[in-house]
Specification:
The chain has helices at residues 14-19, 72-95, 104-128, 146-152; strands spanning 5-8, 26-31, 39-48, 58-66, 155-157, 163-165. It is of the alpha+beta class. A hairpin with a 5-residue loop joins strand 5 and strand 6.
Length: 166
Amino acid sequence: MQVPFIIPVRKHGKRMKELLKGTQSRYTEYRMRGKPTPVLTIAVAVKYAKGKRGNHGVENLGYITGGFAWHPLRIHQTYRSRFSIESSHRMRNQVKPRTSTRNPVIRYLYAIISFLLKNIWIALLWIHFSPVKQGPQTIDVRDFRFDYFMSSSQYSPDHHGTYRAD
């Protein structure tokens, strides 16, 4: 049984850059050097930048896949939604205190507290920093950054990751 996976491809090296050129979404194979020589299945999703991030024209995004028979654009959308989950875990690690305890109850408690702080910050953003306007509701995170929220809270971690009362 193979576990399905999606891994983004980095555009490094002449062979990979050449592989990620084109104007149509497709699957292709990439043979790695070495022994044994594994063959990777790469889904190339082609999107139009439409001026996003200052880019225009075609944008080729590659993903190493296994266990999927999906169109490359669906793989791209799936990875995009998964990426937001991974980003939230990285942000959780910004507030989770570092500990050397092996007690799983304490480690779990710290994880819950860090997720709670993150959710409080998101709720404050939606309530106080979301402009009232027609169309979809948006938030400008620059108005109330997460690091400012943490430094202004009553209990904030110091540079060692331990909590102290201000």
